[in-house]
Amino acid sequence: EVQAPAAAGMHARPARVLVQAAKGFQSRVTLRHGGRSADARSMIALLQLGAGPGAAITLEVSGPDEAAALAALRQAFAEQLGDDDTAAPGPADAAPAAVAADEPLEPGAIAGLPASPGIAIGVLHRFRSEAAGYAATATDPLGEQAALEAALEAARAELKTMAREMAQRVGDQHAAIFAAHEEFLEDPELLAEARAAIDAGAS
Question: What is the pTM of this model?
Answer without folding.
Answer: 0.64
